[in-house]
Design brief:
The chain is α/β, with parallel strands linked by helices. It contains 14 helices and 13 strands. Strand 4, helix 6 and strand 5 form a beta-alpha-beta unit. Helix 1 packs antiparallel against helix 9, helix 3 crosses helix 7 and helix 10 runs parallel beside helix 14. The chain is globular and about 75 Å long. The two termini are 30 Å apart.
């Protein structure tokens, strides 16, 4: 069986974990946490990067920084992971879903402004598959209405929009280092803080609501509870593992992109059956995180999933749109009660293919080709 995902190890991770043990600090904010944060700040162009134990944690800190009141609204796509919405629901806010674009599966920037109300506090964009949303338009709308922009860049490390790294464009950015991502630490994440005035409070929230970071910098003579917060630090062994990945990040992305491009090239040569491959807008650079196909109809998609599994290749569907889930119906709404037709259509027709370093491309393409050729439409 060709698995859907296989985490890639550089070979340096265990050595750095052993070093963390020898140094003797296993709790958070040790030398590896600092090195990872500084690397991310430098490479991504962010004012400050705070490592967290997950991207969910980074999103929760971002939500706390908004000082939300009960009933405040957050505009976002429905085609995303539950954490994107849950972080704000926990603070009493209401996710307001707008539809996605049919080409990139990102939030449709043309629909955002009409969804804004007097209680809208932020726009949360999700860079699906590591491909950038239309950030110029989104930032201009947010500025005009004096609301914040949070980038859910969980899938988008080192991806770019017009030369800028994703996560560094909005007010805040959130990264994931989950084992299914390009750069991994098992679990793990980071909050990118792109404005100096948000940095200190973000530190406090991350440190259980205390001014502990200020204390260690010598800015106060003792630390104490000063604000809301929680324990969002990763352990030092997690940061050590991540450091073993970050120092090879360019190599990892390059090798991942080669797999992605080989899949794209091979599948582009198959007969035209109405299957759509990923769209890459001009002036964007993606990172090869997800390779997907959009089938003409749901039944055809489901038959393909069954066929590839039977032949030994694990392909999968992706998100169940949040607005159609029990939690979504309870805690959120769609903008102006509109149907999210593009979201629902794409979600029902999408297949994700394996795209990991070391994937047997030749065998994978052979299985995919055979599965497609066996579909009923191919005999028409």
């Amino acid at each position: 069986m060709i698995p859907f995902n296989k985490p890639y190890l550089t070979g340096d991770e265990l050595g750095f974990i052993d070093e963390a043990y020898r140094v003797g600090q296993l709790a958070g904010d040790g030398q590896f946490t600092r090195m990872c944060s500084e690397w991310l700040e430098h490479r991504l162009g962010s004012e400050k990067v705070l490592l967290t134990h997950s991207c969910t944690a980074a999103l929760e800190i971002a939500a706390m920084l908004l000082d939300l009141n009960e009933g405040d609204e957050i505009i976002m796509p429905s085609y995303t992971f539950v954490s994107t919405a849950n972080a704000f629901v926990r603070e009493g806010a209401v996710p307001v879903f707008v539809d996605i674009r049919a080409d990139t599966l990102n939030i449709d920037e043309r629909l955002i402004e009409e969804a804004i109300t007097e209680t809208t506090k932020a726009i949360v964009v999700v860079h699906y598959a590591g491909v950038a949303c239309e950030m110029d338009v989104i930032m201009e709308v947010a500025k005009r209405h004096n609301i914040m922009v949070i980038e859910d860049a969980a899938q988008a490390i080192l991806s770019e929009y017009k030369g800028r790294k994703l996560g560094s464009i909005g007010d805040l950015g959130c990264l994931s280092f989950h084992e299914t991502k390009n750069i991994i630490s098992g679990e793990g994440g980071a909050l990118m803080v792109n404005h100096p005035e948000l940095c200190k409070r973000a530190e406090i929230i991350r440190e259980k609501g205390t001014n502990r970071s200020s204390f260690f910098r010598g800015e106060v003579d003792k630390y104490t509870w000063v604000d809301v917060g929680s324990s969002y630090l990763p352990g030092e062994t997690t940061a050590a593992f991540l450091w073993g990945q970050l120092i090879h990040a360019d190599e990892i992305i390059s090798r991942r992109m080669q797999v992605w491009e080989n899949l794209y090239s091979g599948l582009s040569r198959l007969p035209d059956m109405g299957i759509t491959l990923p769209h890459l807008p001009d002036e964007t650079m993606h990172n090869g995180h997800i390779f997907y196909m959009l089938f003409p109809e749901e039944e055809m998609r489901n038959l393909f999933l069954q066929a590839t599994k039977a032949k030994g290749l694990m392909s999968v569907f992706h998100y169940v749109p949040l607005h159609s889930s029990p939690g979504g119906r309870l805690h959120s709404r769609t903008a102006h009660g509109k149907e999210l037709s593009v979201t629902e259509s794409c979600a029902s027709r999408l297949v994700r293919l394996p795209v990991w370093i070391g994937l047997d491309i030749r065998n994978s393409l052979q299985i995919i080709s055979e599965a497609i050729n066996e579909l009923p439409i191919s005999r028409a």
